[in-house]
Write a structure and sequence with these properties.
The protein has 487 residues and is α+β, with helices and mostly antiparallel strands. It has a domain of 99 residues: Sandwich (Immunoglobulin-like). The strands form 5 sheets. An 8-stranded antiparallel β-sheet has the order 3-17-5-13-14-15-16-4, with no helix packed on it. Strands 8-7-11-12 form a 4-stranded antiparallel β-sheet, with helices on one face. Helix 1 runs antiparallel to helix 7.
Length: 487
């Protein structure tokens, strides 16, 4: 047996194991204290990468859930304001119907009705200004896609959240064919003889029909006056004109090929080619043109940007008469331009880039509601409504109905956005949040029972190695005893 004192290899080896066991015990204590089996990159580099990615996704999903909840609150606030707008428009429609009751109204009654209507208009504008979420205005046009038309007869109507904002100069508007109205025109003028023979005119339009028979002894003027009264009484969407030679001309008030009318007369040629046989108008024509050089579909006098293009969903009303040849080059004169400003509300509804959704709110300013409606009184919007005469009251109904349609469509879009875009997405996010939390737990969290077993083992091993280190340090005492005995 070799006895050396310069190097105590046994003690050094015992020290090495004591240090190693102490490190294992420290890691066990760390895992038990933190509840995680991965506390630093050295605990598992690959697992650390995955778990950090999952942890980031968990935080992002949680924030996306908060975003959805805030978005739902905002849309609910906007819809509450729009509900009141609908109620006011309904009341305004009731006032217009009351004002149209010409036989029972006197001047004072009409003035009072107009005053009440004006008060309702002011209330709409007040809601437009006051409806807000925090400090963000909701219904003043700053939370939607808005625009302005330039050029004779070019008017911006609406745009959708997917419509792209235009360049500074705006999108060019080119018109190849104007929208027209369905029309029936007789070739034979009305005579006193036809009246005395009981000339009968039958007209059908939009599911409504009338049949008027001349009264013997009435003049031509009386006949046409009574026929016009019948058309108004049936609320037909028609304009009636009489030429200088007493021919009858019936024109549909609305533009486009989907509107038509039919009519017959006792005398062939008066309004129908064959006596007592209904003649159908050819129908109007829909406008044709382009917006920003992109395809646009036409309906009546309204151009709508085609799907998938920069101008998708953009609606432009054209009432001018400037036409551009279809084979015209890019430098050819355009009918006008429309500038689009995209301010639709964008919500980040998902945890990753690009997972967002847009919704556009309507501008409820009375100078904007009800635009683009053809009416006899010439009202351009509901702010200009004057129901103190029958024509104004009848025209007001058209504009108010258009305004109600605009508001209701916006409410429906918001409801669909909230239900399918927000609430459904929120449910999915909550499921994702649970599953991602579970994934992070599987990768990162410590099995406390297993770690307790390891802790006990490492603790015993450390005590054992410490005890053996103490014995190793006593080994050199044998050599000292030998040296003492030799002396």
């Amino acid at each position: 047996m070799a006895l050396r004192i310069n190097h105590n290899v046994t003690a050094v080896n015992g020290h090495r194991w004591a240090v190693y066991n102490d490190q294992l015990l420290s890691k066990s204590l760390e895992k038990l204290s933190s509840g995680q089996k991965i506390n630093r990159a050295s605990d598992g580099p690959a697992s650390l990468i995955i778990s950090e990615q999952v942890r980031s996704q968990v935080a992002s999903v949680k924030q996306a859930m908060n975003n959805n909840e805030i978005g739902i609150s905002m849309t609910q606030t906007a819809e509450a304001a729009l509900t009141e707008v609908t109620n006011i428009l309904t009341s305004m429609r009731q006032l217009a119907i009351a004002a149209a009751n010409e036989g029972a109204n006197d001047k004072n009654m009409l003035e009072a009705t107009q005053l009440e209507l004006r008060n309702s208009i002011d209330t709409l504008d007040r809601i437009t200004v006051q409806a807000q979420f925090g400090i963000r205005k909701l219904l003043d046009g700053t939370t939607g896609a808005n625009g302005v038309g330039t050029g004779e007869g070019v008017s911006f109507l609406s745009a959708t959240p997917v419509t792209r904002g235009s360049p500074i100069e705006g999108y060019e508007v080119r018109i190849f064919e104007q929208g027209t109205r369905a029309k029936l025109e007789g070739t034979v003028g009305l005579t006193q003889e036809m009246i005395d023979n009981g000339e009968t005119v039958t007209i059908a339009e939009g599911g409504r029909t009338l049949s008027y028979k001349a009264v013997k002894g009435d003049t031509v003027e009386q006949f046409y006056g009574k026929l016009r009264t019948e058309i108004l009484a049936q609320q037909m969407d028609l304009d009636m004109e009489v030429t200088q030679d007493n021919r009858l001309v019936l024109t549909h008030k609305q533009f486009g090929k989907k509107y038509f009318l039919e009519a017959s007369s006792t005398t062939a040629g008066y309004i129908s080619d064959v006596a007592l046989t209904m003649k159908r108008s050819d129908g109007g024509k829909d406008i044709r043109g382009t917006l920003g050089g992109q395809f646009a579909s036409g309906e009546g006098r309204v151009l709508t940007g085609g799907a998938g293009s920069r101008v998708e969903g953009l609606k432009v009303l054209y009432t001018g008469n400037k036409l551009t040849p279809e084979d015209a080059g890019p430098d050819a004169e355009v009918a006008g331009r429309v500038a689009v400003y995209q301010n639709s509300l964008q919500f980040q509804i998902g945890p990753n880039a690009g997972q967002n959704a847009r919704v556009s709110l309507i501008n409820t300013n009375t100078r904007v509601l009800g635009r683009g409606v053809v009416n006899d009184a010439g009202f351009r919007n509901i702010y200009e409504l004057d129901i103190r005469n029958p024509i104004g009251a009848a025209s007001a109904l058209y504009l108010i109905e258009r305004a109600m349609d605009e508001v209701n469509v916006t409410r429906a879009n918001m409801g669909a956005f909230q239900k399918n875009g927000m609430e459904s997405n929120l449910k999915q996010l909550r499921v994702n949040y649970t599953e991602l939390m579970n994934s992070e737990s599987v990768i990162r969290d410590a099995d406390m029972a297993e770690e307790m077993v390891e802790f006990t083992r490492n603790n015993i091993m450390l005590q054992s190695s410490t005890a053996m280190l103490a014995h190793a340090n006593q080994t050199n005492n044998v050599v000292l005893t030998l040296l003492k005995s030799g002396g």
